Each structure stands twice: as C-alpha cells, then as structure tokens.
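It is worth pausing here to work through a concrete case rather than discussing structure prediction in the abstract. The textbook approach is simple: state the sequence, then state the predicted structure, then interpret. We follow exactly that order.
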Amino acid sequence: MLTKWLYTCGLRPWQLESASLGAIGLCIGLWIRAKTVDQEARGNAERRALFVGLWPPTLWLIGESLSDHEAVGPRRLRLARR
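Step two, the predicted structure:
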C-alpha cells in the first residue's frame, strides 16, 4: 500500500537508493566532523552520526520494495498478494 502510494507520487527506486548512498556519505562526514569538535560536544556529534547511519538500510529497502512494485506491475502485485 505504501509502495503503491510512493510510486504514484513519482518516487522511483533509483532516487531512494541514491538517497541511501548520500546518507552513508553524510554519516561519514558527520563522524569525521565529530572528531574535530571539543571533548564536551563530541558525544552529541557522534550520536548524530550514528543516528544518520541508521537511515541507509531503511532507504535502500524502501527502494527495493519500489523496484519490486515496478517490476511486477500494479495489477500483478494485487493478484500476487491475494
């Protein structure tokens, strides 16, 4: 249901997979930046990097669900789930 709605809104699998790779880069950038801040703010900066690090698997799996929806097609997807 959610993948159908995302697909009809114009979201495509390559967009979510690209966002997943971008989130990996953002996480690495935040982690490197966390090493440059002072000791008092380092814990918060590292937690922020870890939080962003949780996004890539989620975005990638939503993209995979959209690619399954795209490959099977909306009509066959409804028949397969019955």
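Step three, interpretation. Helices lie at 2-8, 13-34, 39-53, 55-72, 74-80. The chain has five helices and no strands.
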